[in-house]
Model the fold of this input.
Amino acid sequence: MLGKELNHYKILRELGRGGMGAVYAAEDTRLQRQIALKVLPEDVADDEERLRRFQREARAVAALNHPNIVVVHSVEESGGCHFITMELVEGGSLADVIPPGGLPLEKFFDYGIALAEAISAAHESGITHRDLKPTNVMVTPDGRIKVLDFGLAKLSEPEVSDEDETQLQTDSLTADGKIVGTAAFMSPEQAEGKPVDHRADIFSLGILLFQMATGDRPFKGESTISLLTAIIRDQAPSVTDLKANLPRHLARVIARCLEKNPEHRYQSAKDVRNELTGLRQELASGDTGAPPPVATAVPGSRARVLGIVAAGLVVIAALGYVLRDDEAAAPVAPRLISIATADSTSGVYYPLGRGMATVIEREIDAIQVEVLPSDGSFENAIMVDSGAATLALVQSDVAFHSVQTERVLGHRSDRIVGLMALYQEQAHIVVRSDRGIKSIDDFRGQTVNLNLPESGSRFTTETMLSHFGIDSSEMETSFLSSGEANIALLNGTLSVSTQWVAAPAPGLVSVLRSDGVELLSIDPELIRGLRTAQPFLMPDVISSRTYPNQTEDIETVAVMTLLVGSSSLPDALVTNILEALFSNIPDLIAGHPRASEISFDRAFRLEDGMSIPLHPAAEAYWRDRRD
Done:
């Protein structure tokens, strides 16, 4: 192509090459200026789908008019060669200017706010970029940001036909079989090949902000598959863990951009811009509005959680205690409390925790609630026991063994107390019909999924199977999420999966609609014996009307989800929290797709659900309600 002329443009040099075409520096011989010229490769120019996508890109970018977005001059064709001409941006890419350790804070705000403004302008024009990354962001010699390469942009046009919409949703796999976008900067929904909207860009923006702040990326992997798995499943570290002098509120802004569930992210890039602008102004005035420091948890291994609280003063601060002159401890209401939940990608714990935080902050004056993602019940118990969390959502069996035995913590905790019982999670034992599994005894020699390694569900499953006389050494065990287990059941690499379910999940419904997969009933005699030995496991029935292809009721057991807290919480605060939550049950997981299916009303039976001591104020509160 070098030296070739397309219409009145002379190709000078190649600037780059990507999946949607090559980019050249060219001279506009009419206007005597240099421009960038993007050409669809000749070998695919006759591909109707590829050409349609190229033309879509041209229309999308040409519609934009923003100082931080590359200017498109024209869309042209010459001798069957389709191309667009655009502004030639001098300078280097964002990837070139981010130093080890990240950008200085002032430069971070310059670039971050400009990026958010550019993305917001594109979204307001109905355009989703879908491939935001440092090499698609140029920094001019005078320090201005220019967002490039809308080659993967998706127009959200209302007149799209059903057929076109289906095609747009499946564009995540190109003709070459590649996922659209760059793996390290994809959103979870892109990585899973799901339909995307503008909120995918907000996740990618969060990765860019993370890298600008720290010099590192939040998700890593030794291969593309492991990297995509990390994006889908792993919780990003806080930027303050990598760079302690960063503002804590900045860490929260970036963390919210990186929420796995699009519903929990900022819903617009303009909101991100406003947050960054406001924080910059606060820092400039010296007033960040930050509450006193408290213990916070880093999701991950048990060792990391146990290392959070290094001194008794941190625990005292977290629980809002002060010492008077006479050295007597006087409980006061803390300004900031925290609630440990779970990974935000699936399930009910995380949206429930967020709902609780919203209700508590709305109903109780001068209280802020920090929602702490985690690996689930197991880690949540550790966080409350260590003082790293004030409140937590915990399965009742994990709570029981945290207080009554040493199985969870290595000691019996006197710090974890019950506040309220919430809803039941039923054991769904899903089996392959062709494996001859008619009872629990038939698990021996089979491939059995026990749930994720650090989850309360794994702990409960192992407790149940152990009571039934099945040792993990007698099975080939795996430790998969529910979604992964469903896939393994369908492809035959897994024989059994036990899932603890609050309400029918779409993935489980889909699996049970398939031939060759069914629910297994537990012998009622076994259930009665289990209830005697493990008081936190209750008899339950999965109704024959629950799932497709199910013709009879399924005998099973259920575990209760509890809200637990620190035994040192002030009585008045506990009473206020319970009153706020109990009076606003519909708001607790409002917006969650399964909220209406979860039965909170039946679960407020403390005599059934609580397998641990109650906080004195909680005991008094529920006694008054029963009376």
Observations:
- The chain is about 35% helix and 20% strand.
